[in-house]
Amino acid sequence: MLNMKIAYISKSCYADTDFPLIRKYQQMGHEVHYFLNVDCRELHSTLIDINVQNPNSCLLSPDAYPELDVYRNYIDMSNVYIVNRAEKSSINYKTLRLAHLVDKKLQEIQPDVIHLLEPPYINNLLLYKWRKKMVLTMHDPFPHTGESFARRSFFRNIAFKLIKKFVLLNARQKSQFSSRYKIQENNILINSIGRFDYLQLFVVPRKKKSKVNVLFFGRISPYKGVEYLCEAMTKVHEVLPGVTLTIAGGGDFYFDIAKYSSKNWIKIINKYIGVKQMAELFDDCTISVCPYTDATQSGVINTSYSFSKPVVATNVGGLPEMVEQGKSGLLVQPKNSDKLADTIISILENENNLLEMQKFISDEYYASDKSWDIIANKYIEFYKML
Prior knowledge:
12 helices, alpha/beta, globular, 8-stranded mixed beta sheet
């Protein structure tokens, strides 16, 4: 296989999907240069929790942030560059200088491909001089409910006109994406997200708890459907009184949570959850639930699978491609608390079926189509099309 020189430009909120892929590229012998944007407004992400940001807007080595030290035996950090954005303003002399520094580094590297995890915005439009080498992954091809912003849409539309190769992480939205943005389907790769094996770095062997726990994990937002899960779990608790619910994630509740927070079988952790605590929550849960009202795909599902925990999810967006009905979990229609409750009860009442699902998840994500070997090879073949 021809080894490639890859510039991979991302930001901390995508690091959970970046790290395993970069590790696999390195194992395959490809030369990967990883540009990790650290923004002063986004210092706390799933994988990286930065306490104090370096005050300079510049390129830094990973040594600048000791929070990255835990990953040094997981990926080779020698070609990792921290794009340190210390300015709140999107456009000023310092942010423009930082864009120039990134461009200068790219000129030194002369990559075969530049893989972006987000469209260039006003502070890094200089990237478009490399557009003929660009591949752009769209984690969210269409804005979620309550999360559409005119300025963001403007720069997304520029990207759809200037970049030729795109990656989506589910097949259900391919035709709609192609039609809406006038992109030929043969320029769109459908790929997957694999197992987040780096999470094992944070698992401390301990005695398993005997309780049955249902976990909702993630940022609280209207499209997440948390209110339907709370309603459903009230019915679940009546049938299975030993079952507990944990809701963990930052953000403002958009419905009346008070009537649920007083129940002794519901635990609400309404704050940013660091990677260590996240690993503990998934390690302790029995199943996780994604009751979304709309979605593209979900890193929560992959996190759950990383601990071989089945998922109950709604049949929206690309989630049906991530949850194999009856094998890795169960699907239910959105906004239906009764159906959601019945589905959760059915998966928790059948212990043998639960164990079979756990085994299927382990087998599928270690060695089958969802493995990082397959995912990485798909990307490399797509890069060659450039």
